[in-house]
Design goal:
Blueprint lengths: L4 H10 L4 H18 L5 H27 L3 E6 L4 E6 L13 E5 L4 E3 L19 E2 L2 E6 L9 E7 H6 L7 E5 L6 E7 L2 E4 L2
């Protein structure tokens, strides 16, 4: 059965989307966004991102120590909320003019601290490492991949520090001494849970 040319043109015209249909879709997307967007907690994503960033930086520092066969020192800058990685090629524990240091900020509105959450161990403070290099608490990864000591770095949001009532914003990065293994934790009241 043959279609007439007028019915073919009507079918061809109907395949497109009209301006009114596109506007209706845009309005529906706008309304959905208006209802959902206020419920999204951006700070939670920022804290998780900072936890992943610090954990990845620690893993990279350990790998660098193994690859280069010399110490790599991680410095925790609590004043500017940053982490520094010092490629200590002469193993003397001091930053020389030829050695590379990379500074990475924790992220917007992220600080070292617990924000109302309890500590995972008896050791107190936002950073439980005890070695000090210059003005910073530090952790050294050796060429065999081990760490200078076991310890924890706690991260939270600035809002949790200000209010002291948001323990759910707390995250922790645990470093094992013998293996240099890095583990991530988040606080879900009443316990710390491993993973994201």
């Amino acid at each position: 059965m043959k279609q007439s040319s007028s019915s073919r043109s009507r079918l061809a015209a109907r395949r497109g989307v009209t301006l009114i249909e596109m506007m209706m879709v845009a309005v529906l997307i706008g309304l959905t966004t208006a209802f959902i967007a206020p419920k999204i907690d951006v700070t939670t994503y920022r804290v998780n991102g900072a936890m992943q960033g610090i954990g990845t930086t620690l893993l990279a520092a350990q790998r660098l120590a193994i690859t280069r066969q010399h110490d790599v020192i991680v410095l925790f800058d609590t004043k500017t909320n940053a982490i520094r990685v010092h490629d200590d090629s002469d193993n003397n524990g001091e930053i020389n003019g030829t050695e590379h240091v990379v500074t990475t900020p924790l992220g917007e509105t992220i600080v070292y601290g617990l924000g109302g959450a309890p500590t995972m161990t008896e050791a107190a403070g936002p950073i439980t490492f005890t070695k000090i290099r210059g003005d910073f608490l530090s952790l050294t990864f050796h060429r065999d991949g081990s760490a200078s000591e076991a310890g924890i770095v706690y991260l939270t949001s600035q809002r949790a520090v200000n209010q002291g009532e948001l323990p759910r914003d707390a995250r922790a990065i645990w470093v094992e001494r013998a293996t240099g293994q890095v583990s991530w934790y988040r606080y879900l009241p009443p316990n710390w849970k491993r993973g994201f």
